[in-house]
Amino acid sequence: MKYRRLGRSGMKVSEIALGSWLTYGGYTEDQSATACIDRAYELGINFFDTANVYRRGEAEKVVGRALRKYSRDSFVLATKAFWPMGDGPNDRGLSRKHIIEQVNASLKRLDVDYIDLWQCHRYDPETPLDETLRAIDDLITQGKILYAGVSEWTATQIAEALHTADKLFLDRIVSNQPQYSMLQRYIEPEIIPLSEREGVGQIVWSPLAQGMLTGKYKKGEALPAGSRAAVEDPTVSGSVQRFFTDENFGKVEQLRAVAERKECSLAQLALAWILRQPNVSSAIIGASRPEQVEENVKALDVVLTAEDLNTIEAILLN
Ligand code: NDP
Q1: φ, ψ for residue 315 (rounded to 5)?
Q2: Are 173 and 145 in contact, with CB atoms under 8 Å apart?
Q3: Farthest CA pair distance, the chain
Q4: What are the sequence ranges of the domains in the chain?
Q5: Do residues 43 and 297 lie in contact, with contact meaning Cβ atoms separated by under 8 Å?
Q6: What's the pLDDT at 111?
Q7: Is domain 3-210+274-298 annotated with CATH 3.20.20.100?
Q8: DSSP letter at 188?
Q9: Distance 129 CA to ligand 1 centre (A)
């Protein structure tokens, strides 16, 4: 395993992290979820991402139970809050009230004394930023969380958070969690340059476009049994099937040929391509089976030359 600093912080996270959205507490049975987490840990993955809202707390419980047997200082646990956890007006958002209640609830569900990285799952236009940043700073002072990050914030919102923290002498955010993959590159023009300057690391989600970039979905062919796209719940299957466009299938076929030339899998090529970005601290994969973790971790052995990157760029821009 290789490790990178999380943004400008001194904390090191594995270049591949394991997440739990849709899978753990969801369509992946608990036994398989634990097997994936155990295999990840054995392979040196020290970074695990979850959120309060994933299956309304069930994912946090599965992750907490699986990690309980390992020494607390040997892994970095990340969770988040923002999305509704109930029907009440204060059961959502980034108010001081909701953040503090949700951190306490996450600590219980995860069964840990502290959260290494706590993240604002989205930007909340209904709460003043200084209220959110002060609540986070208090939680850091109390030792309940060690670092804070955001997820899917724009470059302007990230810059505003850094500026406000500096002005009020509060802790700065160290990371942003955006979607980033060969099929989703919106962070490249603004978010990455700003984050590079300011020491904010990207920990990117759906780096395999939910499985599309493994090449296992083929146009006009039956969906692989047991795959996310074949899950009965349309909110789950639909989230990956939105990648099923002619354009994407075309790119995947061309990328598959590049992977074959490099003698690696398409998933490994897609992850190596993400990790070419020094501003990326970690790529958060999902896995429903331990073999997927094993395959994906081997992406760290794939070296992409300038020529490979040019070839890939031509395919992606096409
Ligand atoms: P990926 O793009 O890595 O997709 C994961 C899925 O792809 C797996 O569940 C598996 O699906 C399939 N897969 C992975 N590796 C392989 C392989 N080698 N061969 C075949 N299939 C494979 O990431 P996710 O979409 O799962 O997102 C990762 C994490 O990012 C989440 O768990 C969460 O922590 C975070 N996230 C954050 C969000 C945010 O708003 N901040 C939003 C969404 C996710 P299958 O089940 O078909 O086997």
Answers
A1: -70, -45
A2: no
A3: 56
A4: 3-210+274-298
A5: yes
A6: 98
A7: yes
A8: T
A9: 30
Identify the residues whose C-beta falls under 6 Å from ligand 1: 19-21, 23, 49, 151-152, 177, 205-211, 214, 216, 227-228, 267, 284-288, 292, 295-296
Residue with tokens 């083929």: 218
- What is the distance in angstroms between the CA of the first residue and the CA of the last residue of the chain? 33
- The yes/no answer to whether this complex scores an ipTM above 0.90 is yes
> 89: CA distance to ligand 1 center in Å?
31
What lies within 8 Å, CB to CB, of 70 at 6+ separation is: 41
pLDDT in tens, 55-109: 999 999 999 999 999 999 999 999 999 999 999 999 999 999 999 999 999 999 9
Question: Which are the contacts of 57, defined by CB distance < 8 A and separation ≥ 6?
Answer: 25, 85, 105, 109
| Residue 295: other Cβ atoms inside 10 A | 18
Q: d(Cα 259, Cα 254) in Å, to the nearest integer? A: 9
Q: Are 20 and 45 in contact (CB under 8 A)?
A: no
- State the Cα–Cα distance between residues 192 and 280, nearest whole angstrom: 9
Rg (CA), the chain: 19
CA distance 310 to 279: 19
For residue 306, give the amino acid letter. Answer: A
C-alpha pair distances (Å), 273 with each of 52, 107, 195, 309: 30, 35, 19, 8
In testing the pocket of ligand 1, which one of 16, 21, 152, 203 has its CB within 8 Å of the most ligand atoms? 21
Q: How many Cβ atoms are within 10 Å of 313's Cβ, its own excluded?
A: 12
Count of positions (residues) in the chain: 318
pLDDT tens-digit readout, 243-285: 999 999 999 999 999 999 999 999 999 999 999 999 999 999 9
